[in-house]
Write a structure and sequence with these properties.
This protein is an alpha+beta fold. The protein folds into two domains: 132 residues, N-terminal domain of MutM-like DNA repair proteins; 125 residues, Helicase, Ruva Protein, domain 3 (Orthogonal Bundle), CATH 1.10.8. It is 24% helix and 19% strand. The protein has a four-stranded antiparallel β-sheet with strand order 1-6-7-5. A hairpin with a 2-residue loop joins strand 2 and strand 3. The termini are far apart.
Length: 291
């Protein structure tokens, strides 16, 4: 699934290529990607047609494009979604789902939503230009200048749940995702099952700093791409996967100590860690029952 750096790369591409463009036509080629819009496919298209795209913003893994009437085009890429800026004579992509025909775009005159697995989607957020109410519950991400480090540290240390589970909690911190959580934990030498209340404030701050660093580095390289599904608005893949130390490296030697990287199941996904550098935490001792 695209994570914060990949989504930020797309947001930046939208800001550079479609800002100021006016939507002159909308084709919804499959209803599923607009399933969250109560207007339905026809209403979604009507609400966008004639509107001008006046911004490109992000909260965690959600994107939204403010419109000139105070509403917003809200999008989530899901597992395989792509937002591509294309010239109108470019062949349709195999999994093209929604087409916005644009007038006045800097480069290209169509914004296309392509989604093979169709877990992502688009909708119109009424009055959502500043912040769509649908995503107001999502926390800020570590790259957000208004992210509150002190509050994050306090909240982590009050919880008994494992630190990786907390990193993936979008109500606590958004945008980290599975790949970058594993990378930040490897850099911090922490096992993902380490309970938050067993971490010092300094350890949490160090981990947060590593999460920022790894995502900023990935952002600088266009994100992480393991296949052709993860692309920017020009269809180009990122290449930060070449710099990963833990994720996807099962059986390969740890870049720090040489111990083979281990993979374990985690929340219907996988976690990768070095068993030497990131030792599994000891189980809590049960408290004796009162007399």
């Amino acid at each position: 699934m695209p994570e914060l750096p990949e989504v930020e790369v797309v947001r930046d591409g939208l800001a550079r290529h479609v800002l100021g463009a006016r939507v002159v036509g909308v084709d919804v080629l499959h209803p599923r990607p607009v399933r969250r819009d109560p207007r339905g496919p026809a209403g979604f298209a009507d609400a966008l047609t004639g509107r001008r795209l006046v911004g490109a913003r992000r909260r965690g893994k959600y994107l939204w494009v403010p419109l000139d009437n105070g509403d917003a085009l809200l999008g989530h890429l899901g597992m395989s979604g792509q937002l591509l800026v294309q010239p109108p004579d470019a062949p349709d992509e195999r999994h093209l789902r929604v087409r916005l025909r644009l007038e006045g775009a800097a480069e290209g005159r169509e914004l296309r939503f392509v989604d093979q697995r169709m877990f992502g989607g688009l909708s119109i957020s009424a009055g959502g230009a500043e912040l769509p109410p649908e995503i107001a519950h999502i926390a800020r991400d570590p790259l957000d200048p208004e992210f509150d480090d002190d509050l994050f540290v306090r909240r982590v240390r009050r919880r008994t749940s494992g630190i990786k589970r907390q990193l993936l909690d979008q109500g606590l911190v958004s945008g980290v995702g599975n790949i970058y959580a594993d990378e930040a934990l490897w850099r911090a030498r922490l096992h993902g099952d380490r309970p938050g209340d067993r971490l010092t404030a300094a350890q949490v701050r160090t981990l947060l700093g590593h999460a920022r660093d790894v995502m900023a580095q990935a952002l600088g390289q266009g994100g992480t791409s393991f296949d052709s599904l993860y692309v920017n608005v020009n269809g180009e893949s990122g290449y930060f996967d070449r710099s990963l130390h833990a994720y996807g490296r099962e059986g390969e030697p740890c870049d720090r100590c040489g111990t083979p990287i281990r993979r374990v199941a985690f929340m219907n996904r996988s976690s990768y860690f070095c068993p030497a550098c990131q030792p599994v935490p000891r189980a809590r001792r049960a408290r004796p029952a009162p007399d």
